[in-house]
Amino acid sequence: xxxxxVSSVSEPGSVAGALAGGIRSAGEAVLVxxxxxxxxxxxxxxxxxxxxxxxxETDIAVEPSFSVVEVDGxxxxxxxxxxxxxRWRGITLRRAG
Length: 97
Description:
It contains two helices and five strands, in the order E-H-E-H-E-E-E. The chain has 97 residues and is of the alpha+beta class. It has one domain (2-92): Translation Initiation Factor IF3 (2-Layer Sandwich).
């Protein structure tokens, strides 16, 4: 699964392009954020990616979760946004389990 780190200075359009590409190729991708600014940019990217994927008849869903990551030897709490194709070219995808 593709994973992208998003910071408060990330360009939402660039992140959205990478996210849409990951969803088109693998069906899902993860955005990892630390802090409110980074989360804000990631959410904007999800909205933009949703527009990109509309032309491919792909609807997306977002599954948020917490994760602990290590940054410079310090553990920090991150918010992970798992973004996946809910409907892909007319086929409904269901998560196993």
